[in-house]
Amino acid sequence: MKGKVMTLFGVAALLAAFSLPALAGEEAAAAGVLNQWLDGINGFLASFLFYDIWPGEGKFPFIVAWLVAGAVYLTVRMGFINFRLAGHAIAILRGRYNRPDDVGEVTSFQALTAALSATVGLGNIAGVAIAVGTGGPGATFWMIVAGLLGMTTKFTEASLAQMYREIRPDGHVMGGAMEYLSRGFRELGWAKFGKGLAILFSVSAIGASLGGGNAFQVNQSLSAVKQQIPLFADQPWIFGLVMAFLVGIVIIGGIRRIAHVAEAVVPAMVVIYLSAAGWILISNAEKVPQVLGLIITGAFTPQAAFGGVLGVVVQGFKRAAFSSEAGIGSAAIAHSTARVPYPVRQGIVALMEPFIDTVVICTMTALVIIITGVYQPDGPYAGLVAANQGAALTAKAFGAQISWFPVILTISVVLFAYSTMISWSYYGERCWTYLFGERYSMIYRIFYVLVVVAGSIGSASAVLDFSDLLLLSMAFPNLFGLYALSGRVKRALDAYIEKLRNGDLDREAGRA
């Protein structure tokens, strides 16, 4: 079977290899057609998702308000679990409560790293630079707020994914927003409505996997790599072909292989990146208070050039949603595969995602960008800001402090992009399978690999808009499910906390 699969991927690679040099010879025309197609889709989606609900000056898109309202509601409904059970989440990840008879495909830690490999990506590097370049330093404050609120949203998604998952005869798990939307609403007596939401979510997720989880990643990583390797600046399709091959050889194996790769790659790349950012911040310790002041004042009294307070809030929440995916429903697909006896236990693990991804990594990236001043719209890198070349902008920020680090950052960027792409391939494939069945999953995988190459020739701005819109569109059906089913999660959470307080969980794990 694997031989046939490798043959299929080989055929896809050969088609790309023979056709793309011709495209490269007419690169401007090829990219123009692709960008025109993306712009048409972007305009259609934006007319709904980014409909301005604010009556006064400034813009406050519907989808951002939808995410903010959902995060605030769930945080209050769950009793601020994002702060209360963070310590317990660490204990779970350390294996304190593991049991050999737990059912699932991967461990809680592997599920978390698989989900983090999708979220800890270029949203942290490129997305943060774009947010600060567009919204100013104040966007950082709202990213942090969105990350803290998003912890509860992610908890609710992962808990529901565990509650409504299906363990299939072959041992594979089918779980995620499409399952709790269809099955959860059926329990409430709204089967058709739930099925419609599940289909809408799946279609959006497939599009988001091809856009934000694929084309955006290869496009932004290319913007950093070509700074170091001029060949890719002249022939970007070659970079796309290399990435396509590397992605293809991993996604054949499904979630188990993806989880093993993520378990090895994610911690290493996070340590490398945070070590460099930490060194820069320590070296510029005297500037940190001033930068924090810029972030606070910019969050509430931004300069007119940054579009007012609402513009900064929107940028912060928008980029935080793209980075942590809280409220989007994507990571619930990975968390549904974890081996846990209590659904809310994996939810508690999942709430660490937005904290690691947004509150820690995004904040450190933003501090480096602000300290170095590369985000200034009238500065020497204004062209990168205007073109939304976020990864290249971040490379300039790190390079201003560590002359040799752009090379290391380039490697980190590729790893971040690669890990995100392999995890999002699984998300898209599960939604594809939900719609069409297991037998057609290979069609999606091959198409996913081909889109990797196509993403290397599109413009950054068009790909960014396409990625944002499809990713954010997933939040529309997903939050319906979180609102409607949050009561069940709250009851399960209360029962779990009672067991934790009574020591029942320790006794079950043989620790008492």
Overall description:
It is a single chain. This protein has about 500 residues and is mainly alpha-helical. It has one domain (about 10-20, about 30-510): Amino acid/polyamine transporter I, CATH 1.20.1740.10. About 80% of the residues lie in helices and about 0% in strands. The protein is built from 25 helices and two strands. The protein has a two-stranded antiparallel sheet with strand order 1-2. Strand 1 and strand 2 (about 175) form a beta hairpin. Helix 1 packs parallel to helix 22, helix 9 crosses helix 24 and helix 10 (about 190-230) runs antiparallel to helix 23.
List keywords for this structure.
512 residues; Amino acid/polyamine transporter I; 2 strands
Question: Would you kindly provide a brief summary of this structure?
Answer:
The chain is mainly alpha-helical. It has helices at 2-25, 27-49, 62-77, 81-84, 86-93, 108-119, 122-135, 138-163, 177-187, 191-228, 230-234, 236-251, 254-283, 288-300, 308-324, 331-335, 343-350, 352-372, 382-386, 390-401, 405-436, 441-455, 460-473, 475-502, 504-508, and strands spanning 166-167, 173-174. It has a single domain (11-18, 29-508), classed as Amino acid/polyamine transporter I (Up-down Bundle), CATH 1.20.1740.
